[in-house]
Design brief:
Mean pLDDT: 76
Order of helices and strands: HEE
Structural class: alpha+beta
Radius of gyration: 18 Å
Low-confidence stretches: none
Number of helices: 1
Distance between the termini: 27 Å
Largest sheet: 2 strands, antiparallel
């Protein structure tokens, strides 16, 4: 899936560049789909094999259903390019 996403992103950025829009475009990817983790406790009935959400905490159906966001392009300050932030963000912050 990541390889397919990379290929499609390349197609989109090439098309934007050929049309002369790439320099004025902000590209943002965000997700919020953490892996399910095995339940704990004697009354746990979820039987699926759990995944790992490392380094984020939490899993599906919790307050900590972490995701990630990647931003590239116009409007990103030069000093922030290539950096990583641990700041919290909510989807409504995008609007």
């Amino acid at each position: 899936m990541v390889r397919a996403l990379d290929e499609q992103l390349l197609n989109v950025t090439r098309a934007l560049d050929e049309a002369g829009y790439l320099e004025n475009t902000l590209i943002l990817f965000t997700n919020e789909n953490p892996a399910p983790t095995p339940p704990k406790g004697k009354n746990a009935t979820f039987t699926a094999i759990g995944g790992s959400n490392y380094p984020q905490r939490g899993s599906k159906h919790t307050l900590w259903g972490d995701g990630a966001a990647y931003v590239w392009g116009a409007g990103v300050p030069v000093e922030a390019r290539g950096s990583e932030s641990g700041a919290l963000m909510h989807a409504v912050d995008l609007f």
